[in-house]
Design brief:
The chain has 4 helices and 8 strands; from the N terminus they run ββααβββαβαββ. By secondary structure, the protein is an alpha+beta fold.
């Protein structure tokens, strides 16, 4: 299933896209503070991560511009304990050469739409580096609200790094119970 936003095509990521996904992720890992990962994962590791996302029924998307992968996004479970099963976390990465072309917005919009079609009710953004103005602004435009800052929780590239927590409801959010318990009660 593909969604076209201007000249940006948002589609499901394939195994063949993982080489491009790793290429896009590399500068974030090696030179940036948006991720706290410090060693570049192999393409094999990226394939395993994609498979885990898909096995959980969550979306893993890429953005194509002129037939080239220009960014990617995916959702993961927020935490493994069962009570968190309706909360997911987003990740969005755009090629350094394609930033500023609304690719991140198209990816996050597509990820939210796909996630709202599932059973999830809350989406969190755990943004590495409290000075990551681009990611913060993107999430605000997509309806996320700042809910907290974790100070100096990471140490990367010789400095302490904060994370910002942003949150938005998916679908009805917390206005109603999840479908698995609607109308039911303890038996």
């Amino acid at each position: 299933m593909a969604t076209v936003v201007r000249d940006i095509v948002i589609r499901d990521a394939t195994e063949g896209d993982m080489i491009d996904v790793q290429r896009i992720y590399e500068p974030y890992v090696l030179n940036g503070l948006a991720t706290f990962e410090e060693a570049l994962p192999t393409v094999y590791e990226m394939l395993k991560r994609r498979a885990a996302v898909l096995a959980a029924g969550l979306p893993y998307l890429v953005a194509e511009v002129d037939g080239q992968v220009a960014g990617y996004s995916y959702a993961t479970s927020y935490r493994p304990r069962p009570a968190y099963r309706h909360t997911i976390e987003d990740s969005v990465y755009v090629s350094e050469t394609m930033q500023g072309h609304r690719i991140g917005a198209a990816l996050l919009h597509g990820l939210i739409a796909r996630s709202e079609a599932g059973p999830w009710r809350q989406m969190l953004a755990v943004i590495g580096n409290s000075e990551n103005a681009g990611s913060i602004a993107l999430h605000r435009r997509m309806g996320f609200q700042l809910v907290g800052t974790l100070r100096s929780v990471g140490f990367k590239l010789g400095q302490w790094v904060d994370t910002l927590l942003m949150q938005r409801a998916l679908g009805p959010g917390a206005c109603s119970p999840p479908s698995e318990i609607k109308g039911g009660g303890a038996g």
